[in-house]
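FORM 7B - TANDEM STRUCTURE REPORT

SECTION 1: FIRST PROTEIN
SEQUENCE AND TOKENS:
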Amino acid sequence: MSEIILHHYPPSPVSEKVRIGLGIKKLAWRSVEIPRIPPKPDLMPLTGGYRRTPVMQIGADIYCDSQCILREIDRRHRDPTFYPGGGYGMPWALGRWTDGELFALIVSLVIATSADEMPDDWVADRGRLYFGKNFDLAGLRADMDHNAAQLRAQFGWLDQRLAQGRNFILGDIPGLPDAFGYYLVWFARERWASAGGLLAEFPSLEAWEGRMAAIGHGSPVDMDPSDALKVAKDAAPATPAQGDPRDPQGLEPGMPVTVCPLGDGGDPQVTGVVRHVDRETIAILREEEAVGEVCVHFPRVGYRVARA
């Protein structure tokens, strides 16, 4: 079973990063819409408790975090390339900036300006997830001008890159760096009321934004969550057992571990048995009554793996 199933919801910014990646690859995929906040009863049996969005499913293999998702999409579908001009490695380093400081700036502005219009449970959930247990809405609001100035300067870096006669960040062909930058412009435009005025300063960035939007999301078809669970139940994990003799943590297939995102987001640990480990990823086997045995994949960067 090689059909791509994406568990996401339309306003999710990180899902937009993956959706535009599917568009760059011109892929068909199945779309399962999930709730914005927990509980997520049709997702938890697949992930073992991982609650962030999006999650990709291929049969009984479950891919968590956009890093892991986009790597697997590229491994299975090499053409068109995510690395035009031979830009290997560099996009992942860029992604640590876009998914870190740049994303945090936009989230802070979105929550500070829209909290009064959003449900209290959403504000509490996102505040805890992105800013820790000591989340301070008043502090975010006091810092709005400062954060907007920080965002303006950093969007200016992207504009400078695109102002050099390039259609896309690496040249004339869209690639992974474009997905990493575009989802943040999309997020700001969609969710922060002042984004239009800030972005108007950057004509090259806005022109690129239009080119990226025109790429689209490939060919999605809606799927019922219960059907996705059945796909997992009827399949078996396809990930082979593999160790890594250079692994600094000494992780090996068969070893019980926990996996959790770094930071103070209140994320639950996911427990399982190592199936596959390498420099970039770890995959663990787990079993749930609703789906049978599944293999859940995580990136190494940005996650803590500990022996259970």
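SECTION 2: SECOND PROTEIN
SEQUENCE AND TOKENS:
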Amino acid sequence: MLRFAANLSFLFNEVPFLERFGEAAQAGFRGVECLFPYEAPAADIADRLRQHRLEFVLLNAPPGEWAAGERGIASLPGREHEFQAGFVTALRYAKALQCRRIHVMAGLVPDGADAERRARQRALFVRNLRFACAEAQPQDVTVLIEPLNPRDMPHYLHSTQADAHAIREEVGAANLKVQMDLYHAQIVEGDLTEKIRRWLPQIGHFQIAGVPGRHEPDTGEVNYAWIFRLLGDLGYDGWIGCEYRPAQGTAAGLGWLYRLIDRARVAAPGDDD
């Protein structure tokens, strides 16, 4: 049965952050995720999860100075101690929220950087991921890395599925997997069916959005009904994060879920059978 999680950084933005948990539950979701939960006390979030019987399925490690344009620091020279401290904070939140997945963002390569600079950042990313995986293993947490498209995220360290899986293999940690956002993957390279078939055992989480526009998944060029049936047929038992920007309000756009899913094959959020 496929399970869908509401990304509370993108959905239900009509209300303050802590109120989004109730909105997600009311809409039928049983899982939630978000980019960075750190402005709210972990205890307050945990209370909302208990109150609304929700599972927190994914959070990101602190990304550096997001407002200043940073998109992760795990590959940035001179920021190793900051990354390690931030990852410890992420683990503390994950423990409080019983969350078993942490996404580590690599960061950006300077515009015009040569191959040597890119190689140095990649090597540092590998070292920092080894640290993160070792710290996360006793807590039974999976560390995730995600290739991002260069249109939305120019100069990000890695942008293809093959890049991410090559990094995963080099790190060599059993608790490192790839977060496959089908929005980014379609923009960069397409061929989603074959990439899912090839790498599914090493994919720790999926995310979805319509292409182009990053709106509801029932708009645009990706046939998500096909993708959902494929994942069901392949026996995927993880979560699918709904990380899209609602075109005209979150609740108004949720009809996509029930129109696209073949309910004889997979269960919509809130279904008990």
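SECTION 3: OBSERVATIONS ON SECOND PROTEIN
The mean pLDDT is 94.
The first strand starts at residue 3 and ends at 7.

SECTION 4: SIGNATURE
Preparer initials: ____
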